[in-house]
Design a protein that fits this description.
The complex is a heterodimer of chains A (312) and B (81). Chain A has nine helices and 13 strands. Chain A has 312 residues and is an alpha/beta fold. Chain A has two domains: 3-175, 3-Layer(aba) Sandwich (Peroxisomal Thiolase, Chain A, domain 1), CATH 3.40.47; 179-310, Thiolase/Chalcone synthase (Peroxisomal Thiolase, Chain A, domain 1). In chain A, β4, α4 (95-103) and β5 form a beta-alpha-beta unit. In chain B, 54% of the residues lie in helices and 0% in strands. Classes of the chains: A alpha/beta (312), B mainly alpha (81).
């Protein structure tokens, strides 16, 4: 079946908290690492930090406001709300139900959360498009939000210089702008302790993540290109999860991707976990007919990759 | 037992540094990586390159004892047949 007849992404709304914390100042206070390391290797100058009264639901509603401002969307036509998060405001009820309440929608709406991290947008996209198709639905809202600054220890060098907060919502319908081709997923065996919660805070083994990406994710990116009859040349832009500038540079080197085809956008807000890819993707909706390669990788340690084609 | 030259390891380290657009470093065999300003990301790349070159895995629990080229040489020579 032609993918163009299936579901895709019609539009994206995003939300960033107003507060920024300078990584340069934070580094001076806690770590005293060379400034070049912060700017050139981590690639994050400032971190977007959610306020104490902000949470997953309020930030997702902020993204929704952005979506509504830029689109004429009939909310009564929304059949499903899917939220990707691992830091919900509550575990019971599921936060997609709280979003449903905040949006004031009617009873015929399927709502569920997806527990995924940095690969979460790709997982969410695969789940939501299949869900709409298999249930003969028409429209869905795919939210992402993981406010990691709430779980990061400020004195932990491995995490506090990287993660920021943000939220996104993608409007999924048949009348879309970008359509996914085949999805690729995977997990590195025996790696659950490499990015996890320890003593109430986020723990990340940076070396393990680096090895994971080079040994598992990059080879599968090659498979993804091959399976969809694409090459590095035929892809217009690579929208990778913004883990760190260093890891993106290494992926680029291994796949021989020209620098101008890689999107770097974490400098002013940090690694937004499941929201990092939709933040990049949003910029490709204006008058551009691109073929895009998306890949997210992180907690699990797991990954997901997909190529998006612009509507013809 | 395989004999690994310190200079061989230094070459791998400097290849990684040059690829990262950093200057070559002169490192004596007992000098600490950290004290010479070699950061955690370069070390991750360096260990990755060493693992690939010598077809060996450096477990996390051994890393705390590897602080210099000498330490790394000792580890590799004990784990490569």
């Amino acid at each position: 079946m032609n993918r163009i007849e299936k579901f895709g992404i019609k539009s994206i709304g995003t939300y960033l908290p107003q507060t920024r914390r300078s990584n340069i100042e934070h580094n001076k206070k806690f770590f005293q690492l060379p400034e070049d390391f912060i700017l050139q290797k981590i690639g994050v100058e400032s971190i977007a930090v959610s306020g104490t009264v902000e949470n997953v639901v309020s930030m997702c509603m902020g993204a929704m406001k952005d979506l509504v401002q830029n689109n004429s969307i009939d909310l009564s036509g929304v059949d499903a709300i899917i939220l990707v998060t691992q830091n919900p405001e509550t575990t019971i009820p599921h936060n997609s139900a709280m979003l449903h309440e905040a949006l004031g929608l009617g009873p015929k709406v399927a709502c569920f959360d997806v527990s995924q991290g940095c690969a979460g947008y790709i997982y969410g996209l695969s789940i939501v498009t299949s869900f709409l198709e298999s249930n003969n639905f028409n429209n869905a809202l795919l939210f992402t939000c993981d406010p990691y600054t709430k779980i990061v220890n400020a004195s932990d060098q491995n995490t506090s210089l990287i993660f920021g907060d943000g939220a996104s919502v993608s409007w999924i319908s048949k009348d879309a702008v970008y359509y996914p081709k085949s999805f690729h997923f995977g997990i590195m065996p025996n790696s659950t302790n490499k990015l996890t919660m320890k003593d109430g805070h986020l723990f990340m083994d940076g070396r393990a993540i680096f090895n994971f990406v080079l040994k598992f994710v990059v080879p599968d990116m090659r498979n993804c290109l091959l399976q969809d009859n694409q090459t590095v040349d035929s892809i217009d832009s690579f929208l990778f999860h913004q883990g760190s500038k260093y890891i993106l540079d290494h992926i680029a080197k291994l796949l021989e991707i020209p620098t101008e085809k890689i999107v770097y956008e974490m400098k002013q807000y940090g690694n937004l976990v499941s929201s990092s890819i939709p933040f990049l993707l949003k910029n490709f909706f204006l008058n551009q007919k691109n073929t895009l390669f998306l890949s997210g990788f992180g907690v699990g340690l797991s990954w997901g990759s997909v190529i998006l084609e612009h509507k013809r | 037992m395989l004999n690994i030259e310190i200079n061989e390891l230094l070459q791998v380290l400097n290849k990684v540094r040059l690829e990262d657009s950093e200057k070559e470093v002169i490192l004596k065999e007992n000098e600490s990586f950290r004290e010479k300003g070699i950061d955690s990301l370069t070390l991750a790349s360096f260990y990755f390159a060493v693992e690939e070159k010598y077809k060996v895995s450096i477990p996390d629990n051994k890393l705390s004892r590897i602080n210099s080229l000498q330490d790394l040489k000792k580890f590799l020579e004990g784990h490569i047949n």
